[in-house]
Every structure is written in C-alpha cells, then in structure tokens.
Design brief:
The complex is a heterotrimer. The longest helix of chain A has 21 residues. In chain A, 55% of the residues are buried. In chain A, the strands form 5 sheets. In chain A, strands 2-1-3-13-4 form a 5-stranded mixed sheet, sandwiched between helices. In chain A, strands 9-10-8-11 form a 4-stranded mixed sheet. Chain A has a two-stranded antiparallel sheet with strand order 5-6. By secondary structure, chain A is an alpha/beta fold. Chain B starts with 13 loop residues before the first helix and ends in a 5-residue tail after the last helix. Chain B is built from 14 helices and no strands. Chain B has a domain of 224 residues: Orthogonal Bundle (MetI-like fold). By secondary structure, chain B is mostly helical. By secondary structure, chain C is mainly α. In chain C, helix 9 crosses helix 10. The chains are: A alpha/beta, B mainly alpha, C mainly alpha. Chain A: Keywords: Cell membrane, Lipoprotein, Membrane, Palmitate, Signal, Sugar transport, Transport. Chain A: This is Multiple sugar transport system substrate-binding protein.
C-alpha cells in the first residue's frame, strides 16, 4: 500500500520539520573548549588567494601558538572580494570570529554597530605605528594595522625629459595647470590616453583614489568638524571646480575608463603617467628599471593629498577571550613580522623599526619615495560610521560626472542622499 | 515500507485486494473514499516541496515584508523602528533612481521577452531537425548558458570597450566608416548593450525548453499534415505551434520573470550607471538594502517589485490561458 | 518553397537538400557567435596576463598564438584548493539536483494529475514564488537559517543545536524545492493522458506506484530538462555560500573565483580556473543531452 505509507511518512516528516523550526530559539553554537586545553581564538583574514600575505600570518600564528599554552589561534582565510559580505552575514547571524581584519575606513561603522570592541592594546604598540595605520572612532582606538599603502604618479624619466616636462618633487609638486599642460603635451607626443587614472576599477577604489584629489582642491566628502552634513564640502565651489577638471580629463581623452585594472598599460608604455598604488611598484620597476619615477600627486590648490588607511585588525565584541586576542595582536606587531608583511606584499611598514629593516622602504630602498609621500600627504578618509554610504554615493556621483552628468546638480543630489542617511541614523553618534 | 493497515492483506491478493473493498462497498461510497484517499495522497506527495518552499521562500519573504515597514538597518546599534508607509512614500516621491530603475526594468523586459522567446524557438526548430551533427549544435548553443554569468559579463565588458572586439568587428565590416564607441559608458547605449548580452547568454536555455516541447509533438501529426500537402510553414502554423501551447506559457513566464529580475549583468558591468541608465529594481534593492545597509528600505523596494511582477504574471497568465 | 503533393520524388529531395544546406549555414554562423566565450576562455587560459590584455581588441584573442603555456593552471592549483572545491560543488549539486528531481516531480504529479482540496490555490502560490529573486531575500534568509535547529552527535548522543551556518546542508536544503521545476513537471505531466492513471487504478495501483512506474518513465524529457535547469544554479551558487559558509574546506567552486581578484586580477588564472570548473558542466550537459534524446525516443509512442 504504497500511497498510504508514503503519505504517512511525508506528513510525519513535514510535521517534525515544522516542530523543529517551531522551537527555534537563538543560541549561537559557540564552541566552548573543554576544561584543560588552550582556549581557541578564531581569526578571519581577507587574504585567501594571496599566498605572500598568508605566509606571514601562518608564521606569526605558528610562533604565537608555540610561545604559550593558554591560547591557540585558528585562522580562516576569505577572498577579499567576498570578505565584507561574509562579515556582515556573520554579524547578522551573531557568528563573528574573535579576531578579524577590516579595511581602515569601515572601522568607525563597525565600532558604532557594536561589531568590534575598543582595541586596548599596550599604548607602546599603537603609539609606535603610522597614524594612518590606526583606526579610531570617537577618540577611541578600535583597530591597528601592520602597514599602509600609498598612491603616487608613475612616470618614465626619459619620457618627461624628452617632452620638456618638469619633474615635480614633494616640495614642488605639479599644479593643476602644469598637469594639464603636461597631459596635452604627452597627448600630442602620441600617447592617445596619456594618464591611466584607474577609472575602470569599481568599488572603494573610487573614494580611495579620487576623494584625496577633491580634498587637495579644498573640498571633502563630508564636513569633518561636525560629521553631520556633506553640504558645502561635497558640493561647494571647490568641489565643483575639481569635478569640472575631472569631467574634462575624460572629455579631452587625457584619461579613460577603458583598459584593465592594474598597471599593464604603463608597463607597456601605452600611457605616460599612471596614478596607482605602491603594490604595483615592483612590476613597474621590473618593466622600466632606473627610468621609473615615483612622483607626488598634483596639487589641486590645497597641497597634494593621498588616501591613508589600509587593512587593520580588530577584536569582535563577542570574542570569548579578548585578553588572548590582545596577547596575540601585541605579539604580532613585532618588527620582524611587520617587515615581512611590507617586503612580501610591497606595502609601507607601519613601525619605524620595520621601515629601517625593510629591503624596499629603508632610506636607500628602491621604493623609499612612498614612505615620504605617505608621511607628508596621507589623509584618512572621514572617520564616521556614515562612511560606507558616503563612499558608495561618492562613487556613483563621480562616475555619473565622468559620463557627462551635470556637475552641480549631481553633487547636490549626492549631498542630499548622504545627509538624509546621516539624519535617519540620528547622526551616527555625533 | 508497510503501514499497519497493509499487513493483514494476504500477499497473493495484494494488488487486486487493494481495490476490492472499495469496489465491494458500492459505487457512491467507494468513490467518496477513493476521493478522500486521493486527496490525502495528493497533499502528501506535494508536501515535501511545499514545506521546503514555505521554509526557505515564504518565510524569508514574509520577513522582508515585515522589514519594509521599518527603518531597519543591516548594521546599526539602534533597534528598528516601525515607520508605517514612509519607505513606500520615499520610493515613489523622493527617489528618482527608483522610478528610473522601474522604467529600465520594464524596457529591458519588453525587449528581451519577445526577442528571446522567438530566437529560442527559431534555434529549437533548427536543432530539432533530423540531420547529422545536430547534437553538436545543440550543445554549442547551450554553452553560454553553462558558462557562469559573472564570467560572461566580465568578458562582454571587455568587448564593449572603445578599443574592444565589438568595435573592431564593426570597423572591419563597415570598412572603417565606424567611429568606435564605449557602449557601456553612454547612457543611450548601455541598456541596449546589456540587452544583447543577456539574450545571447540565456537564449540557449529557452531553446532547450522549446525543444522539449517540440519533441512531445507526435511525428504522426506531421506525417498526416504532409499527406495533406502542408508546406513547412503550414506545418508549423497548424501542427507545431498549437502543440507548443503549454511550452509557450512556460517559456514566456520564465523569461518574463528572469528578465524582470535582472541583476548580475548590471552589477558586474555598469553598477547601474552611466547616470542610472541601467539601474534595475533588483539592483536598486540590493544597492540600498545591502550595500548601503538600509535593510528596511531595500525590503520595501523588493516588496514593490514582487507586487509588480505578480501583476504582470497574472495578466500574462490570463492572456495565455488555454481556451479549452 | 512549396512541396505539392504531386511533386516528383526527385524535386522533393531537392527541396529537402536545399533546406538542409540553409540549416547548416544558419547553424554554423550561430555556432560561431555562441562558441566564442568558450574559445576565448580556453585560449586565454594558456596566455600570460599581459598578452590576454593586449590581444583583447583583435581576433588574436581567439587564437592560441604567442606565449603559450600551462603556467596559469599551475598557478591556479597553487592558489586555490581546486580539488576540494570541486568535490564540495559536486556533492552539493548532486544532492540538490537528485533530491530536487524526486521532491519536485512528486509535487508536479500531485498538482497535475490528482484531485485534492486547495490544489489550484497551491499551484498559484507555487507559481507566485517564481517571482522572488534570491538576491532580494538573501539577508532575511541568513538570519533565518542561523536560527534553524540541527541535529548533532555529541559523544554518540544525538542532541539539538541551533544554526545552520557552515555546513553542507545549508547549501543544499533551501534549494531542493524549486518552483520552476514544479511548474515544468506540472506542465509536462498534464500532457500525458490521464486515462493511463485510470487504467492503473482499475488494476489496483496506488498513486505513488502510478507516479513511479507509469508517469515518471514517460516523462524522461521533463526529468532531463529539470536536471539541467536545477544543475546550473546549484553549480553556480555564489552569493549564498559566501554568506553562510566560513570554513574554506566547505566552499564551492564559484567562491574560489574570488581568489584571483586581488589588487590586480590574475586574468590568465581566472580563465584557467573558469575552464576547469566549466568543463564538468559541459560533460554533464552532454550526457544528459543523450539521455534526453533517448528518453524521447523511448516515449515516442504516446500521443
């Protein structure tokens, strides 16, 4: 009697499935270790697929686990493009790990949301770091990183000299007019698109790369004094001036949003200038050799600016052993590890000791100019929980302007969007 | 698997015995009992799927429904507040991108649905012929479907560039008369570019659905039609097309729904730009509700989307209902 | 191009021939248009990044010329645990598709061939659920599955725990029931004559027997179509595992794709990896396609 039995089985299992869900009460399955063994510290990184970085973490973790018996760090690596989604999902499910790394500008947002707790490391550690490698919200430190990145303009000395273009220095960078002239000259010299500005990229790159230009022109993403409005900062006359230049650069063909993310075009001498990051420097050194120039970004009126703040570490508020997490982090900030990160990944080390020890960034290292650019010009993105919305709105507005949208009305629209968001979040604690 | 009621039945009588009591108990009673049994068995056989749909579709949709009346945020220390219809007002009165997204979504569907359905049928008819090598063509037309849409979108983004393959092909065909353009960067061409890619990517799938419909049409009908001297065109109009009714309903409904749900291509290729010319309802809902963390407002957009699609689907169902 | 009844056999043969030639021509042109992503992918997987990018605007993009090697494939295996990810995806996909075929075809059978209270309402509701794109409910879903109970064995004793994150079943169970599949089965089953059921009922067959022994064997094309239809989303799952699976050794292949998008994208490796994970799909499609054709042949008698 197949039909009878089937119906019975099916309804029985359906009922039990419903009953199971019915008694679904939250109670996240934290794996609490049994008595004696070391306490497990879970740790997530954004470094899957990046063997150079993972290698250093593995070394630190092995050393730390061997150095004491109280804690054991267990790591899980996520690919970068998927990392934020994984964190947000884990937070929604109340399932965050003890230790997690995060991109600098998101720190205030996660601190405000209660994902992470004040870092509370030995001040000797955090004081020794580059100011842009420390993440704060409301004057409290929430994160610290082993390195910072920096952007610069890559050029070939021979190309600039052949075209009679002055080589700028950190003390005497190009003005906008000089930059325009240089671009026009280079275009005439046969470079169809003389400047690779990286506009084919998407996401945080836009705020990271172009909001410092806006700041250099005297505008900003938000009014940093109050953090309550973008009005006047993102749509003031300085901002309109900057975006007029930005739109013009694409209209005149000085820059384009075709091409590929990365620095191939510069390395192949298809573009003369490339606005790009320290992480691309080794490939360009290989391709160009001694002819490579690492130049400061242009001065849009208020002095050159570059973005500061890269990946940093924090401790989640649900961490079951914050003392262990702190012990691990303090252990990990030893100069030898910071140096290893810097040289493996080609990023600027965050401690003076590591700068000295680094192959690339020591005073006679081949990438030394980045250290100076970072020291003199780095500016953090606004440290407000509103940043993710600000950044996404900025990216959209800047792209629309690149594609020919009316500048003042686009910026006013972006300001209205940001302000509405800040207001509906009750000022994000400011 | 035996239930207690089945055990007393003697093995040799198991099959006929099953029916015997009903037959013996008189026609009326037997019918009613059989009906009841049929009802129970019917519900039982549908139950596993229904329970799963309830758990993993209906409940999350209801959660989203509840969220749409609040100002809930994905990341926030503040508990969500009930805000009534504020989110709905915002969408229709204070969010021009939402209105633009709605327009884009409908334009996309209005082009994709008929074109893709027709092309799919054309391909299906071509590969339904009994000629050598036809299997290879079936597989080839299906290849874009099995290639991940993310990869396909990245690839087409390359090709649509100013110095990309599309322009260099047009250049060759027009003997250099064509000025290359960046298709995805111009508000007037970006949506069209996404339409072309989307049809190309999905049409093989609907070819397959049409094909499975074509194969259910008995060869005898064609033979009869040929005997009556029907031309291939007449055969198509009088045999093929009527035989494809339920397939057509399925194809139209699935393409419509897939088209209205356009998301990945936009996310990978244009992020809704340039100047909102490719933003769609689902993309806008994800951008607001997930990327910009406004879960409540994102849920509102999703809810409006569900209602609109439901209306369209019902209208479509009404229009394509079987007249018999 | 008419074929009058009186036409001589030779003329008819000619017309057929001409149609055949046209068909081949049309299909060949289309084949080129449809084939190029696969060709581009395979060819590019053999080239270094710089060459992929410089070839992109020219026909060379589709030719294995220049600096050809298998380096990208070695790179892929260095960067990503390919075999583990493949295993996970095969497991998740086979179970999702297999259980889905059973569950959805049973529902389609009940909805198309049996009379029961609420049937038409249920059918409308099932079709209504078609309109929900997964992206729009992903966030509530994560929250919801993190609250679902699960059975764990602790020292041999079964015990309830909460939270479905980080498991295989969270990647499978939510996707077994599929409104598209139910809809397709319902449509297909309704084309099979109901008189078969009645005859079987008179012979004393139960409903499940009718489903399993009579209707299902006649529905080969529907099963093959649904298998392909549900195979693809299961294999291409990306957003969901990203959100609910944290352990690397439970991740499916599509998440692995993100491993190549570092600060600069390793395009050659992306293409190599994509080739590696697309080929199994093509193989499956090929084998189903054969089953599809033969099941049609087998059931060709019915009207």
């Amino acid at each position: 009697m197949n039909r009878r039995s089937l119906a019975t089985i099916v309804s029985a299992s359906a009922v039990s499935a419903l009953a199971l869900t019915g008694c679904g009460q939250a109670g996240q399955g934290d794996t609490t270790p049994d008595g004696d063994g070391p306490v497990e510290l879970t740790m997530w990184t954004h470094s899957a697929g990046n063997p150079a970085e993972l290698e250093v973490y593995e070394q630190i973790i092995a050393d730390f686990n061997a150095s004491q018996d109280d804690y054991e760090v267990v790591t899980e690596a996520f690919p970068q493009g998927a990392y934020n989604d994984a964190i947000v999902a884990a937070a929604a499910a109340n399932d965050l790990p003890c230790l997690l790394d995060m991109d600098g500008p998101i720190v205030p947002n996660w601190a405000w949301a209660g994902y992470i707790q004040p870092l509370d490391l030995d001040p000797a550690v955090t004081d020794s770091l580059l100011p842009t490698a420390v993440g704060t919200y409301q004057d409290e430190i929430y994160s610290a990183g082993y390195w910072d990145a920096a952007l610069a303009i890559f050029a070939r000395q021979s190309v600039l000299e052949d075209n009679g273009i002055r080589i700028p220095t950190a003390d005497d960078p190009w003005s906008v007019d000089e930059l325009d002239e240089a671009l026009a000259t280079l275009q005439d010299a046969g470079y169809d698109t003389p400047l690779d500005i990286g506009a084919e990229d998407t996401g945080e790159w836009w705020s990271y790369a172009y909001s410092p230009m806006l700041q250099s022109a005297g505008g900003d993403l938000v009014d940093r004094d109050t953090m309550l409005t973008a009005d006047g900062a993102l749509n003031g006359p300085e901002a309109v001036d900057f975006f007029t230049w930005f739109q013009g650069a694409f209209e005149q063909g000085w820059a384009s949003d075709s091409g590929t993310v990365g620095n191939e075009e510069f390395n192949n001498d298809e573009v003369a200038l490339s606005y790009t990051g320290v992480w691309n420097a080794m490939d360009s050194l290989d391709a160009v050799g001694d002819d490579l120039l690492i130049l400061p970004p242009p001065d849009f009126g208020d002095g050159p600016r570059i973005g500061g703040g890269s990946w940093q570490w924090g401790i989640s508020s649900t961490c079951n052993a914050p003392d262990g997490a702190r012990a691990y982090l303090e252990f990990s900030f030893a100069d030898e590890y910071v140096t290893a990160f810097a040289d493996n990944q080609v990023v600027i080390p965050a401690t003076p000791g590591a700068v000295e020890a680094s192959v690339h960034f020591s005073p006679d290292g081949d990438l030394r100019p980045f250290v100076e650019l970072s020291e003199r010009f780095a500016l953090l993105r606004p440290e407000t929980p509103a940043y993710p919305v600000i950044s996404s709105t900025f990216e959209k507005a800047a792209k629309d302007i690149m594609n020919g949208a009316d500048i003042p009305s686009t910026l006013d629209g972006a300001v209205a969007e940001i302000d509405a968001n800040i207001e509906s979040n009750d000022g994000y604690g400011f | 698997m035996t239930t207690p009621t089945s055990t007393p039945v003697p093995p040799h009588a198991s099959r006929p015995g099953d029916r015997a009591p009903a037959a013996a108990a008189g026609r009326r009673h037997g019918t009613r009992a059989a009906r009841r049994r049929e009802g129970r068995a019917g519900f039982g056989m549908a139950a596993p799927a229904l329970v799963l749909l309830l758990l993993f579709l209906v409940i999350p949709v209801l959660l989203a429904f509840g969220l749409s009346f609040t100002n809930a945020r994905l990341i926030s220390p503040n508990p969500p507040r009930f805000v009534g219809l504020d989110n709905f007002l915002r969408a229709f009165t204070a969010d021009p991108v939402f209105l633009r997204s709605m327009l884009n979504t409908f334009v996309f569907a209005a082009v994709v649905v008929p074109v893709q359905a027709a092309l799919g049928l054309l391909l299906a008819v071509l590969v339904n012929q009994k000629i050598r090598g036809v299997t290879a063509f079936r597989v080839i037309f299906f290849i874009p479907v099995v290639t991940s849409i993310v990869v396909v979108s990245i690839l087409w983004r390359f090709m649509y560039q100013e110095n990309g393959l599309i322009n260099s092909m047009i250049d060759t065909i027009t003997f250099g008369a064509w000025q290359g353009m960046a298709w995805l960067n111009d508000p007037s061409t970006a949506l069209g570019a996404i339409i072309v890619l989307s049809i190309w990517q999905a049409v093989g799938f609907h070819m397959l659905i049409w094909l499975s419909g074509l194969q259910t049409i008995p060869e005898a009908l064609y033979e009869a039609a040929r005997m009556d001297g029907a031309t291939p065109r007449q055969q198509f109009a009088n045999v093929t097309w009527p035989g494809l009714h339920s397939t057509m309903v399925f194809v139209l409904v699935t393409i419509t729904i897939a088209a209205l749900g356009l998301f990945v291509q936009v996310d990978v290729m244009t992020q809704g730009g340039p100047v909102n010319s490719t933003s769609t309802l689902v993309y806008h809902a994800v951008r607001k509700g997930y990327r910009e963390l406004e879960t409540g407002y994102g849920a509102t957009i999703s809810l409006i989307f569900f209602v609109l699609v439901l209306i369209i689907a019902l209208v479509q169902r009404h229009l394509t209902r079987d007249k018999d | 191009m008419t074929t009058p009844r009186t036409a001589a056999p030779l003329a008819e043969h000619d017309v057929r021939r001409r149609r055949k030639v046209w068909s081949y021509a049309a299909m060949s042109v289309l084949a080129v248009i449809f084939l190029f992503p696969l060709v581009f992918m395979l060819v590019s997987s053999l080239k270094p990044d710089s060459q992929i990018l410089s070839d992109i605007g020219s026909p060379q993009a589709f030719l294995p010329v220049g600096d050809i090697s298998l380096d990208n494939y070695f790179g892929v295996f260095d960067r990503v645990p390919v075999s583990r990810f493949l295993f996970n995806s095969v497991l998740v996909t086979v179970l999702t598709v297999g259980l889905g075929l059973i569950v959805n075809s049973m529902a389609g059978f009940a909805l198309s061939r049996m009379r029961w209270k609420g049937r038409s309402l249920v059918l409308s509701l099932v079709i209504a659920t078609l309109i929900v794109p997964f992206e729009t409910i992903a966030v509530p879903m994560v929250y919801w599955v993190s609250k679902l109970p699960t059975l764990v064995l602790e020292g041999g004793v079964p015990k309830y725990d909460f939270g479905w994150l980080n498991s295989y079943h969270v990647q499978i169970v939510p996707f077994i029931a599929n409104a598209f599949a139910i809809f397709l089965f319902t449509q297909y089953f309704s084309t099979i004559p109901k008189s078969l059921d009645e005859a079987a009922r008179i012979d004393g067959a139960g409903w499940f027997t009718i489903y399993r022994r009579i209707v299902a064997p006649l529905a080969g094309p529907a099963f093959a179509t649904v298998a392909i239809l549900t195979f693809l989303p299961a294999w291409n799952q990306y957003l969901w595992p990203l959100m609910v699976v944290q352990q690397e050794d439970l991740r499916p292949v599509m998440v692995g794709m993100q491993y190549f998008f570092q600060l600069n994208t390793a395009w050659g490796e992306v293409m190599a990896y994509t080739s590696l994970i697309t080929i199994p799909v093509l193989v499956v499609f090929l084998s189903f396609q054969r089953a599809f054709v033969s099941s049609v042949a087998a059931s060709g008698v019915k009207g």
